């Protein structure tokens, strides 16, 4: 991995609201699918320049919550505010236009296509007049190359297929794409779950950068250590409800771990195994 | 610091510089002089092109016929004889390649050739519409059926293989029944010559192009002339001109336009493409319309050429078009391939089908040859793709 030195504290982006401004606020959001209650009242606030970590075990409702925030599902009830205004998304496109970008686990990247073609997929810059209108691939290549350099990835050849990139690199390209196209809030769905140590630190470093720039980040993870490394506040989900939201100075890593582990049995198991779970 | 200034980022997107950039001094200019841009070796670059296999195949086939075929195959006239069937297949082959890159199949295009012939016949000889109206009407009706194919595939979420297989039979049956009704019992319709000959439109769909050029070249002894001074090859068959034109446009669209990127994306991973804002359903419907129209164009060309239409026109052409696309480097799973590849795939097809008559072999070996080519192409392409794209 060829790393370019990065400025870890870039200045705030003037296009974004000042740090601390609530970008997304949801209160008591419920989502039911027939008889199944996926979300039974979830509240959280995402602020500009902050990383909100969403923690919860499988089945806690994380996926439903992400899909609700990114416009895939409509909430059954509850309040959903984006920058103080009531939001009602008809689809993912509306959420994207409102500045909410989701980097899904499958990354929305196509392995057989080049990095450049993936980066601009669906938003290709064009030049010329119809019927001779064409994609400005020179600009695409330069932008992709420059963006990849900025996030500290050895770009090699921007025409190489995404399939040849490592997992961490793909994750960073997906995040860079969302940032480049004007996201205000980034929803990252377990970006570090399939990565090794070096690649995880690369992604965490990049999340930190995005935050310093003034974006709001929702970081979904199983791993308390990763969450604690970059998080400003932590919301724990359990069985479709928020167990609580804590600022970093309000809760220690151990307490967060215990809260996330939920039931007593898991805590006992954890101590039996020497606190390593 | 690594900040790099981008000269122009303000077109139809509203991009923002990534974090880490603002307020930093400009780094080394990107582009040719960048030490981080690893130069891909020429070999890797070549191997990354999907049409490489087809060009290799063409070389093999040409070598084979250079040793076995009689010399008249490699004259200008022989070349045109080979290129004509290549072109008739290739017009559909290139369209089928685009659809395949978009992740779908169309098995109904062979039957569509017969059906479009019927439609043209009815519009022209039964309803006595003007030639231009009849040709446009045929293309519109064929395109409509193509769009119907596409919508059925998208809405039912059935594999396009099944939906278009149904239309393979529906359209063939309709052609038979329709021709019998229109002609009073025959599965052939004749009498196009009287309407077509002398029409302003005729040169666009029948005969040869560049006849004057060929005559001039023959007169100056550049190309072979018959004893009476006229050239041995009367010109380039008009289907070949269409074939080259369509390949050129398809290649440009695939490699240089937004739509091309969307076609690759739709076939590579329809879900990922949708998440990125690509109108996948529209792209696929458009591609089905295109393949149907390409079959209708072939129908118009063959009807103008032969002066008749037949319910058995285009038999098995759907499979041959798929073979041409696959030999040309298209993956059966979509998302990868090229129009130029399908171009060469179709030429290989024409060379083998016509070329065997120039040799001492029984020309029925043709199908054996074709099947073997297909198998080798698929195995070769899959291996190559894994190596080049890092897919495991």
Provide structural commentary.
The complex is a heterodimer of chains A (277) and B (392). With 277 residues, chain A is α/β, with parallel strands linked by helices. Chain A has a domain at 22-114 and 178-272: Rossmann fold (3-Layer(aba) Sandwich), CATH 3.40.50.300. Helices cover 32% and strands 25% of the residues of chain A. In chain A, the strands form three sheets. In chain A, strands 6-9-10-3-11-12 form a six-stranded mixed β-sheet, with helices on both faces. Chain A is globular. Chain B has 392 residues and is mostly helical. Chain B has one domain: ABC transporter involved in vitamin B12 uptake, BtuC (Orthogonal Bundle), CATH 1.10.3470. Chain B has helices spanning 42-48, 52-68, 76-101, 109-126, 131-156, 160-183, 192-196, 202-205, 211-219, 238-256, 258-268, 270-275, 280-306, 317-327, 339-355, 365-389, and strands at residues 188-190, 208-209, 236-237, 308-310. In chain B, strands 1-4 form a two-stranded antiparallel sheet. In chain B, strands 2-3 form a two-stranded antiparallel sheet. In chain B, helix 4 crosses helix 13 and helix 14 packs across helix 15 (339-355). Chain B is globular and about 65 Å long. The relative contact order of chain B is 0.19. The model of chain B is unreliable at 1-14 and 18-38 (pLDDT under 50). Chains A and B meet through helix 2, strand 7, strand 8, helix 4 and helix 5 of A and helix 11, helix 12 and helix 16 of B. Chain B: This is Xylose transport system permease protein XylH. Chain B: It is found in: Cell membrane. Chain B: Its main location: membrane. Chain B: The chain crosses the membrane at residues 52-76, 82-101, 113-146, 158-179, 200-223, 235-255, 287-307, 319-337, 342-359, 365-384. Chain B: Keywords: Cell inner membrane, Cell membrane, Membrane, Sugar transport, Transmembrane, Transmembrane helix, Transport. Chain A: This is ATP-binding cassette domain-containing protein.
């Amino acid at each position: 991995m060829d790393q370019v030195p990065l400025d870890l504290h870039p200045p705030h982006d003037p296009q974004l609201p000042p740090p601390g401004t609530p970008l997304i606020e949801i209160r008591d959001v419920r989502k039911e699918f027939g008889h199944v209650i996926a979300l039974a009242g979830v509240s959280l606030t995402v602020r500009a320049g902050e990383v909100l970590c969403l923690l919860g075990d499988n089945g806690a409702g994380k996926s439903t919550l992400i899909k609700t925030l990114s416009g895939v599902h409509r909430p059954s009830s509850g309040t959903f505010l984006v920058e103080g205004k009531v939001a009602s998304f008809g689809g993912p496109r509306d959420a994207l236009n409102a500045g909410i970008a989701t980097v899904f686990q499958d990354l929305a990247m196509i392995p057989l296509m080049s990095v450049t073609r993936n980066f601009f997929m669906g938003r290709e810059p064009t030049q010329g007049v119809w019927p001779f209108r064409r994609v400005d691939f020179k600009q695409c290549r330069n932008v992709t190359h420059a963006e990849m350099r900025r996030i500290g990835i050895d770009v090699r050849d921007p025409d190489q297929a995404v399939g040849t990139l490592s997992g961490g690199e793909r994750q960073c390209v997906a995040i860079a794409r969302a940032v480049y196209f004007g996201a205000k809030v980034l929803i990252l769905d377990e970006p570090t779950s399939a990565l090794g140590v070096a690649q995880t630190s690369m992604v965490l470093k990049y999340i930190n950068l995005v935050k310093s720039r003034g974006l709001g980040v929702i970081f979904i993870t199983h791993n308390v250590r990763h969450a604690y490394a970059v998080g400003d506040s932590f919301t724990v989900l359990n069985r479709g409800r928020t167990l609580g939201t804590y600022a970093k100075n309000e809760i220690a890593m151990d307490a967060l771990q215990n809260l996330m582990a939920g039931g007593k049995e898991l805590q006992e198991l954890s101590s039996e195994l020497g606190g390593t779970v | 610091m690594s900040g790099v200034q981008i000269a122009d980022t303000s077109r139809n997107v509203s991009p923002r510089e990534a974090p880490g950039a603002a307020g930093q001094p400009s780094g080394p200019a990107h582009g040719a002089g960048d030490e981080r841009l690893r130069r891909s070796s020429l070999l890797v670059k070549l191997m990354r092109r999907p049409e490489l296999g087809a060009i290799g195949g063409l070389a093999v086939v040409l070598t084979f016929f250079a040793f076995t075929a009689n010399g008249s195959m490699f004259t200008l006239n022989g070349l045109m004889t080979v290129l004509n069937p290549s072109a008739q297949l290739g017009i559909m082959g290139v369209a089928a390649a685009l659809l395949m890159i978009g992740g779908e199949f169309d098995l109904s295009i062979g039957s569509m050739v017969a059906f479009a012939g019927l439609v043209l016949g009815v519009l022209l000889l039964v309803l006595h519409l003007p030639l231009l109206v009849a040709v446009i009407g045929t293309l519109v009706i064929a395109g409509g059926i193509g769009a119907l194919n596409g919508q059925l595939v998208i809405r039912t979420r059935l594999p396009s293989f099944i939906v278009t297989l149904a239309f393979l039979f529906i359209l063939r049956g309709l052609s038979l029944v329709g021709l019998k009704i229109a002609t009073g019992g025959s599965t052939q319709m004749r009498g196009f010559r009287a309407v077509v000959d002398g029409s302003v439109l005729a040169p666009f769909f029948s005969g040869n192009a560049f006849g004057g050029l060929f005559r001039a070249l023959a007169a100056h002894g550049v190309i072979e002339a018959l004893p009476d001074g006229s050239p041995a090859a009367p010109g380039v068959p008009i289907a070949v001109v269409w074939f080259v034109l369509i390949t050129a446009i398809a290649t440009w669209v695939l490699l240089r336009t937004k739509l091309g990127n969307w076609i690759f994306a739709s076939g590579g991973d329809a879900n990922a493409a949708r998440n990125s804002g690509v109108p996948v359903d529209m792209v696929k419907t458009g591609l089905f319309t295109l393949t149907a129209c390409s079959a209708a164009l072939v129908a118009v060309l063959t009807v103008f050429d032969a002066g008749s239409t037949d319910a058995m026109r285009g038999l098995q052409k759907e499979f041959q078009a798929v073979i041409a696309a696959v030999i040309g480097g298209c993956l059966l799973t979509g998302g990868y391939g090229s129009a130029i590849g399908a171009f060469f795939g179709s030429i290989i097809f024409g060379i083998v089908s016509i070329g065997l008559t120039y040799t001492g072999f029984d020309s029925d070996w043709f199908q054996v040859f074709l099947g073997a080519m297909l198998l080798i192409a698929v195995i070769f392409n899959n291996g190559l793709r894994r190596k080049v794209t890092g897919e495991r």
